[in-house]
Amino acid sequence: MKIIGIGQAQPSIHSLKDVQHPKPLQLEAIRLAGFVQYGVSTVSARKMASQAVQAALIDAGCRAEQIDFIVAGQSGIADYPSIDLACQVGAELGGLVCRTVNLLEGCGSAISAFMQAALLAPTLSAGQIGVIVLAQRMSEPHQDRFGLMNAILSDGAAALVVCAEDSRYPAKFVYRGAKDISDTRYVDMMRTERGGSLHPWLPEGRDSRMDPLGRELIMQTYQFGPGDLLAFLALRMDRSVEIIQACLQQVGWTLDPDMVLLHTLEGHQSMDGLLNKLGLFRSNRGLVADWGHVGCADQLISLNVLYNEGKIQQRDKILLSAISTGMKWGCAALECVANYDDLKI
After folding, report:
1. What is the reported pLDDT for 190?
2. Quick check: 267 and 288 in contact, CB under 8 A?
3. Which of 137, 68, 79, 72 is nearest to 103 (CA)?
């Protein structure tokens, strides 16, 4: 599968230092994790995702009428319960009649979207394209965007235009493969039970900022003691390493220090631990301060920003690593082929 266009929606940017919060120590913990600012969208997830797709179409030099499929992934609380984001994007693009896939797998949607699109791309006929779009828009009545263990939850969306390997379109990247796995013991983590983000129904007087913080919530939900929590945090890290290694094996790559790791935008401590275990140096760690944690859109936003800044160049091998509540771990492998004269797929 070739990737021929990339784009993103731009939320309004807010500074962490301006936040008033009833738990100032939590804000300090987030600051120490490397976060400085975050994005807030003034429009719905539907609009934001569609803006990202439109930007990707312009980048690819394609039209919405060429779209044969849309694979949409979402993290955060949907605008309305049970409405298909992929279909909403198609509606925004002019009422398309096309194939759609809708994924609600938290941040893990980032990798699942690639896997689903790769199944559909070989069926595209000449001139047809597919779309991958990933979005997160927080519902602050439901969830405090400052309440995670080690991140600010930001709003944002990013999209890719893809096509079949034998298409005439020049590629920016080529998808080489992906692996994912879930540990279903943790399915109830961060479960949300009421309403949609646009019209939430919540008990009177509820304030999400007073909810248990990330570590507290995990310990309450699973009746963890301190030792259990440490074991869980080690599991998070170890499974990330394992799934990255499994992805490398699948695509026939050997871990190389020059590879680029685009991981979920967690705090610096978490990302540094993963980079150290893998022996990698090039990553999206530097985007934590400016972007916050944009859920399932982290990897595509990172890809777009670093590519446009010239920090990802031809022949670079890129690992997109995601970790999400569920718990789900995933990794996808891309190769930058922009300007290849000898591209062979």
Report:
1. 63
2. yes
3. 72
Q: Tell me the pLDDT tens digit for each residue of 42-77.
A: 999 999 999 999 999 999 999 999 999 999 999 988
* CB contact at 8 A, 159 and 52: yes
Task: Please state, as a whole number, how many other Cβ atoms lie within 10 Å of the Cβ of residue 108.
Answer: 27
Spatial contact of 161 and 5, defined as CB atoms under 8 Å apart: yes
Pairing relation of β-strands 12-15 and 37-40? Answer: antiparallel
pLDDT in tens, 126-141: 999 999 999 999 998 8
Rounded Cα gap, residues 160 and 170, in angstroms: 14
Q: How far apart are CA 189 and CA 187, in angstroms?
A: 6
Ranges of the chain with pLDDT below 70: 189-195, 203, 210, 212-215, 217-220, 223, 339-345
HSE-CB at 145 with a 13 A cutoff on CA atoms is 27
Residue 137 amino acid letter: R
Return the SS3 of 279. Answer: coil
Q: Which of 303, 283, 140, 285 is nearest to 206 (CA)?
A: 140
